[in-house]
Design goal:
By secondary structure, the protein is α/β, with parallel strands linked by helices. The strands form three sheets. The chain has a nine-stranded mixed sheet. Helix 4 links the parallel strand 4 and strand 5. Helix 2 crosses helix 6 and helix 3 runs parallel beside helix 4.
Length: 493
């Protein structure tokens, strides 16, 4: 048996002011065949799992290129085509193969390509033929288009948000692909469209219970796999929205019924999962009311680099500087220039500095302040499940306030807050603070929530807003809740 594995992934926010090109991939993660490290990245788990399983089970694995870019704006078409064609050439050279494993994100958009993953799968299928088994792992913030579901044999999505389960889901994918190749199962997809945009954090109910239900259903009767595609709400493409994907072992009617049942449950709970977002001032007032009892984590989804935002918006920093008698920190703020200035000055130096507010009009006005450089770190990585994600060089800039202080943590590699290394690498003691603002929507939760006395979500400004009605959608298929008053879903496959 011979398998081929590769990865091409990013999450495209079509409202982001940051263009995406090959350089973004080269700065984040890009390796050629045979160069992938032992540990998996978010979208390369199928390759890493297959590498282990090949050694254990005796099949041959041919490794292709793997590329990932931090979420940002629409991808340059020529660069997408070059990376796509690189993988296709590697696949052609590997032929014949019995199976193909692809680690994708599922929300990549390039100029001229609304469905990059569907385009890639179409070309892969043309090379390998109908008898080859194609397996795909996707992030739940994907566009579950009919095209890609029709072209792949098995698609598995992460179930958790934050995405701490990409390795277990890759294990499931590889197992199902191998079983299909061996003729033990015949996966049949059922896809239900909930006609919904919503936010589904799995750290709390009702989504937490829904994830448990999906897991319990798998292996029951003919059910092979159940996935909830949350959808990526910051992309103006036709197939954006929440969908339920069920695979059964050659039991299409049962799969259709289950997908519709689960889809209707999702529709019923969408009001409950919709973000309860405060203003940043409301969040700080609530945190200040119980100051001295440990930190309150305030998430800033609007400026979440993990959703394509610039991560240099200054609204939360300005608001923190206006608070009195509190110790606080905010980060990561993307400002490579400020990092360079801090490195030149050195730890302990006090100087006037301009922070943030550089990338676009939505970044706000820069903060001009007298800062003390209280920490510096080079080439920092933060933990995210089983993976390590780059933060770049980091500086802690502490500003005195009336009766307290605010530390702005600035970094050179645009990224969201995932692990606590963002702050701890530059000596910030999170447990000693009253407020910690993290530029993230939900992925921070696994690392930060255990040390917090509360977690709040606050709206500021940026292209990752949770006020979905504020996006100027023009190409999404309507009606779509909450943009429209729609109560019914539909089966699409």
């Amino acid at each position: 048996m011979r398998l081929f594995a590769a990865s091409l992934a990013t999450e495209t926010n079509t409202f982001s002011p940051i263009p995406t090109s090959l350089r973004n991939f080269e700065e984040a993660f890009r390796v050629r065949p045979g160069e992938h490290p032992e540990d998996a990245k978010l979208c390369t788990a199928p390759l890493v799992v297959a590498r282990t399983r090949a050694a254990q089970e005796g099949f041959e694995l041919v490794e292709g290129s793997c590329s990932w870019a931090e979420p940002s704006g629409t991808l340059n078409a020529a660069d997408y085509e070059a990376m796509r064609d690189e993988i296709l050439a590697e696949l052609k050279a590997a032929m014949p193969v019995d199976g193909v494993l692809l680690g994708l994100h599922g929300a990549m958009v390039a100029y001229g390509y609304d469905d990059c993953e569907g385009d890639l799968l179409e070309r892969v299928r043309a090379i390998v033929g109908e008898d080859c088994v194609i397996g795909v792992e996707l992030d739940p913030h994907c566009h579950l288009t009919e095209k890609r579901v029709s072209l792949a044999d098995v698609i598995i999505l992460f179930k958790e948000y934050p995405h701490i389960d990409f390795m277990p889901r890759a294990e499931e994918l590889v197992s199902l692909v191998l079983r299909t190749i061996r003729g033990e199962i015949r996966p049949r997809p059922s896809l239900y469209d909930c006609r919904t945009i919503a936010f589904f954090p799995t750290t709390r109910e009702p989504t937490k219970g829904f994830v448990a239900k999906m897991k319990a259903l798998e292996g029951e009767g003919p059910v092979l796999s159940v996935s909830l595609g949350h959808g990526f709400p910051h992309a103006d493409v036709p197939n954006m929205g929440t969908r339920v994907l069920v695979y059964t072992d050659d039991a299409k009617a049962e799969g259709d019924a289950l997908a519709e049942q689960l889809g209707r449950e999702v529709i019923a709970m969408r009001e409950a999962v919709s973000p309860q977002v405060m203003t940043i001032e409301e969040a700080f007032d609530e945190a200040a009311a119980t100051a001295g009892e440990g930190p309150v984590i305030v998430a800033e989804p609007s400026d979440n680099a993990g959703g394509g935002a610039t991560s240099d918006n200054t609204i939360s920093l300005h608001a923190l500087l206006a608070t009195k008698g509190l110790k606080a920190a905010v980060g990561p703020i993307w400002d490579a220039g400020a990092v360079r200035f801090a490195e030149a000055a050195g730890v302990g130096a006090t100087l006037d500095m301009r922070i943030g507010g550089k990338a676009s009009a939505a970044s706000g006005t820069p903060v001009d302040a007298r800062v003390t450089v209280t920490g510096l770190a080079k080439d920092v990585f933060q933990s995210f499940g089983d993976a390590k994600a780059p933060v770049g060089d980091v500086a802690a800039l502490t500003i005195a306030t009336e009766g307290g202080s605010v530390t702005a943590v600035v970094n050179s590699h645009r990224t969201q807050a995932l692990g606590r290394e963002v702050f701890e690498s530059v000596g910030v003691d999170l447990s000693a603070l009253d407020i910690v603002v993290v530029k993230s929507a939900q992925h921070f939760h696994a690392a930060y929530a255990p040390l917090a006395r509360g977690v709040l979500y606050a709206e500021t400004a940026g292209c990752s807003t949770q006020d979905y009605k504020s996006h100027p959608f023009s190409r999404v298929e309507r009606p779509l809740w909450p943009l429209d008053d729609v109560t019914d879903g539909r089966r699409v496959i």
